[in-house]
Design goal:
eight-stranded mixed beta sheet; alpha+beta; 16 strands
Length: 539
């Protein structure tokens, strides 16, 4: 089949050409051709196709047009944009080779998108844009040994990296610092001297652990992370942190907020002597003692759960705070412990024993009550016949019920500089940081740790800290736009936007991006990310 020009004519200054579609064939007398139709008799779509062909354009059957590669892209595009805006390439400028810097970037991205062990990164990265996002070749292997070597490049540079992060995130000096601890357990023994048995906040007392000490601002943006021995006492961590923050970041005057485990008398006196403010929570036992010393009219005032109550005792300032929902929680928690303990006591009393060891049975009862955290609510005794008898401490339970929902805060800040409501607000900020710790450990999968060398354990935590920093910066921007969903979850949802390349016949022509899912359109617009998905990135 071919198109033949037959006639041409000029009319009104324009040239008009007639075309015939002709068919060629061979006969015994030689090649011949015949007219099939005039091109004007063909459908408009066919005429357009013929016209485009005459202009030199190539066409293939639809069956020969395929999508070559389909890589998860959307979340990585957002991370790459944030990485560029926060100027994090300059952060790693002096570390190792370009490939090693790309591998470090890939580890940080993977913490947010598909947390996994280094050994599994090769598999998890398959089908994603991770290698290209990090400036690596599409054939990058993410070899485990290469990842470890890249991690080793952080050694000796962390102080500088942390200072740069602080300067970029906090151009003005931080005035309020929230400080908390958490524990991370090991599978196996862990590195000697660092991995120790201690109080496990993961409820894994059977595992060796390390302690992470993290300081953040009021929005949860981290300033500093320290990796401590797993058996380190909470009260022994605070002064080291203060020294580090003052020397490394130049923080001279600030208010520190921390929980009761770190509020030893020595720590509080040291902070006051250094001119630093603090807000901390004290124990329920201290609250009970303080309330017992109140005058009668103050005790009646204590029953008004709609007000904060400020007390100055022996020159020390206290704020008693709480609320109805905490009251309900405390009541239900105590009732649950008492009920479980009483059921266990009944079970122990009903056990038939051939011979009775009174001391052994009493010890067994005591251990059971301790395990159920109900020891203080009961008195019990075992008589010589081995009969177990018990009763509730009714007066103690009633006194405790009067204080349900309340907790005691202590501060050295004067009232003219920090009101009772502000003291409470500072402490509530710490509760938000505890939620951020859950993000650090759950979303970023810092636990469990499989590394054996101390420096690699520490560098693993530091890379998780960098991912946490990046997530917190994005989270701060997105919260200002009304977004409440966690950053890692948003990023993982955006990964459903994919990149591919069109293969036409034997040639790969151009990069294309899949259509943005309808359920993500509104969120992308709200977060100001639409420009990232307006067109595919340059190859």
């Amino acid at each position: 089949m071919f198109v033949q020009t037959t006639t041409s004519a000029r009319k009104n200054g324009k040239t008009y050409v007639s075309y015939l579609v002709r068919e060629s064939f061979r006969t015994p007398k030689g090649p011949r051709s015949r007219t099939v139709c005039n091109i004007t008799d063909l459908p408009a779509a066919t005429r357009d196709l013929i016209g485009a062909s005459l202009k030199g354009q190539d066409f293939l059957p639809a069956s020969q047009v395929q999508l070559h590669e389909a890589l998860d892209y959307g979340g990585l595009a957002v991370l790459n944009d944030a990485w560029s805006r926060f100027q994090l390439d300059g952060l790693f400028a002096g570390l190792g080779s370009p490939r090693q810097r790309g591998l470090l970037k890939a580890i940080i991205y993977s913490r947010l998108l598909f947390p996994c062990a280094k050994l599994s990164l090769t598999q998890q990265a398959q089908g994603t844009w991770l290698a290209r996002a990090c400036g690596l070749t599409p054939q990058e292997s993410f070899n485990e040994d290469d990842l470890y070597t890249a991690m080793d490049q952080i050694n000796g540079h962390w102080v500088s990296l942390e200072k740069q992060l602080y300067e970029r995130a906090f151009p003005q000096a931080v005035r309020l610092v929230l400080y908390d601890l958490t524990s991370v357990y090991f599978e196996g023994h862990g590195p000697e001297h660092l991995a120790q048995y201690g109080h496990s906040r993961d409820h894994r007392a059977d595992r060796r652990q390390i302690i992470l000490a993290v300081a953040t601002d009021t929005e949860g943006l981290p300033l500093h992370v320290s990796v401590l021995r797993g058996n380190r006492n909470d009260t022994q961590t605070l002064q080291g942190l203060l020294h580090t923050l003052r020397r490394r970041f130049g923080i001279k005057t600030a208010t520190f907020v921390f929980d009761g485990g770190m509020s030893s008398e020595i720590n509080l006196e040291a902070m006051t002597a250094a001119g630093l403010g603090y807000v901390t929570r004290l124990s329920a036992l201290t609250l009970q003692s303080l309330v017992a010393e109140l005058a009668l009219e103050k005790q009646f005032e204590f029953g008004d759960r709609q007000q904060l109550m400020e007390i100055t005792d022996q020159g020390k300032r206290y704020v008693i705070a709480g609320g109805p929902w905490r009251q309900q929680r405390d009541r239900e928690r105590r009732q649950s412990r008492v009920d479980k303990a009483e059921a266990e006591l009944k079970r122990l009393a009903a056990v038939k024993r051939k011979g009775v060891d009174v001391q052994k049975l009493a010890s067994q009862v005591g251990r059971a009550l301790q395990r159920l955290k109900a020891h203080k609510y009961f008195t019990y005794q075992v008589d010589v016949q081995g009969h177990l008898q018990w009763e509730r401490k009714v007066e103690l339970i009633a006194r405790e019920a009067q204080q349900d929902g309340w907790y005691l805060l202590h501060t050295n800040e004067p009232a003219e500089r920090c009101t009772g409501a502000q003291v409470l607000g500072h402490y509530k900020g710490l509760l938000d940081v505890e939620e951020a710790f859950c993000q650090l450990k759950s979303y970023l999968e810092v636990r469990p740790v499989h590394h054996r060398r101390p420096d690699r354990v520490i560098n693993h935590v530091r890379l998780c800290f960098l991912a946490y920093w990046l997530s917190a910066r994005l989270g701060g921007e997105w919260r200002a736009k009304g977004e409440t969903e966690e950053v890692p979850r948003v990023l993982r949802n955006l990964q459903t936007i994919r990149l591919g390349r069109l293969r036409m016949g034997e040639d790969v022509h151009r990069t294309v991006m899949t259509e943005v899912p309808k359920n993500l359109n509104e969120q992308i617009q709200k977060l100001g990310l639409a420009a990232l998905f307006a067109a595919p990135p340059n190859p």
